[in-house]
Amino acid sequence: MNKDLISTDKKKESIDTFNTTREKIISSDRRFSEKNDHLLFENIDLYDISKKIQTPFYLYSELEIIRNITEIKEAFKNYPNTKIFYASKACSLIKILEIVKDNEIFAEANSIYEIMKCIKSGFKGSEIIFNGVLKKKSDLEYAIKNNIYSINVDSFYELDLIEEITNELQIEANVSIRIEPNVSSPTHPDCVTAYHAKAGIDLKDAELMCKKIINMPYVNLKGLHIHIGDQIPIIDPFSKAVKVIIDEAKRLENSLNIKFKSINLGGGIPVPYKYGQGNPLKDYLYTSLNSSDFANIIIDEVLKWRDDIEICIEPGRKIVSSAAVLLTTIYSEKIKTNYDDKFNILDIVNWKFIDAGYSILSDSLHFNWFFYLFNTKNIKDDYTLLTKIAGPLCDGGDYFHQGVYEEFFLLPKNTSLGDTLAFIDTGAYSIESQTIYNNRPRSAVALITKEGNIELIRREDTFDDIISYDIY
């Protein structure tokens, strides 16, 4: 078949698929609806609210956070001895942490300041897990003094520091051993944490570390810990990893005549960023995997071993990803022609420039992530205008690379300057990754409370904020 015809067919298929998805979102998604052609999020008119709060800003839903927590709790209801620790790195705004605390789950932290934020939000030290590949002595001292639920030990060097601190202070510390199960997974390369990765100790070293801990007067060994990565779209890697850690736990219990108190299976429950049927082996942004799939694999394997051990999990993305939208305004536009090196026309590109670039939305450092994008004041018309969406930063790469058709997004043909666009499913890692590159401020964040009110929970940076660390 002619290459141009293939391209035309693919383009038409992408447009049709997107419009079908858009219609399903406004008709059946629990978060979204439509009124007077405007897109509503938890019954809040996104176009109207974007004219009351300066864009770009994030809008979170307390109800959606609660729904997601409830889903995970429900998935583990058949194993009541389960503790859920929210991975605070997904979004550590104090108000979000307070919502998590109010819904009776715990917290996981990766730095001393994450621990401090969790404590400020109302968590006790005994409700926090401390992870990380580099924990300074001062970090460990703070964690130990605050009776952290478990320090997940990542190296023999770290364990030596814990022994030194506990002996000096004569205070007990609870630890688990993070092992690498050597399980690969088809996710974004930067999300892999348990296959040729920096985290954890070799499986073969677990017995030696256990023996060392057993002989430490102030260090209590709780169990083993794994975390195989984030946004893993299929169940097989979880299944393999759970079997690895349980087999090792059983072996160590028998070999050392000990009994572990807990087993920590980490997080990684994925969320769909692209909706509909997709091949997850080719695209980790599709997934049909849910909390029950994750729970069933864990519970089934644990029950083959013991029915009295505590299960710990550390979900992050699953709790907040679907709970936010990013609102941004179109401020400029242009048509540009792309030529080859002989000045033959390759294509003509419609560009829309918005006030949210990669300093505002990058999903950590994953520049090729995907988010659906909608015009908030025109959600019903067919979206047929193929356009590239760019941010305001000086870098040539500051545009959104994964569109619905190659690098192109779709908007209604009557889209104009001043219109507000909404990126959906932006609740995880986006706030945490913002920068003041080009001295552009980090964004405000608002919350739709469970009662339906709007609260500002983070203000936009001011110029004084941006220069406040400079010494002059």
TrEMBL record:
Pfam families: Orn_Arg_deC_N. Residues 67-321 form the Orn/DAP/Arg decarboxylase 2 N-terminal domain. Keywords: Pyridoxal phosphate. Its cofactor is pyridoxal 5'-phosphate. It comes from the Bacteria. PANTHER family: DIAMINOPIMELATE DECARBOXYLASE (PTHR43727), GROUP IV DECARBOXYLASE (PTHR43727:SF2). This is Diaminopimelate decarboxylase.
